[in-house]
Design goal:
Arc Repressor Mutant, subunit A, mainly alpha
Amino acid sequence: MSLPVVDRRAALKARHRRAIVDAAAALIAQSGGTTFSVDELAERADVSRRTIFNHFASLDDVVTEVCSEVVGAALDRLDAIASDEPGDRRDVPLFDEVAQALRSTDFVTPLVYLTRVLGDEGGSSPRRVLTLIKVFAEVSSRLTAALAGRHPDADPVDVELLVGALMSGLIVIYLRWVDVTGAVDDPSSREAWTCLLERLLDATRSGHRTVASSLPTH
């Protein structure tokens, strides 16, 4: 039995979008950056310019999609929380569970890729920031759902606040890590990332009381 017309159209759209993203990823790998044009992308994906803009508002959006997939795939360790048996770690405090998942995730490899592809642009690249917001928003949603399922007695708002604070903090420490290390992948930069991550976890665990206590009073 043939697929309904609507299903065939949806499948074709999905194939075109996948072809565009895959072609952009190949061009990025080939050039080491994002210097390719829309025409080059269309030719590589075997689609028209119009098809590209039917799926993406701009070439930057295509690049952001590629980077989101690369970074997002590397963060799958955070989803391991959802794959555990529900009772395996129910007695582990919520914060400790998320902290351990963050510690065991290799952030450096995808973030080096992201920085190389999107460039510096004279400071904190807007494209880098927007890409990270998109990536971590998706991760935040998955992680929040997983934790809510494993900790049904927890207040959903508390879960969202904890995950949101940590995801936002990851963006902050990433930008600091780029400034400090130049976004290279070596033992020193990995140690710097570990230190920044622990600082984020400590600040979140303490409710930033340490930071607040160091501020001048009037």
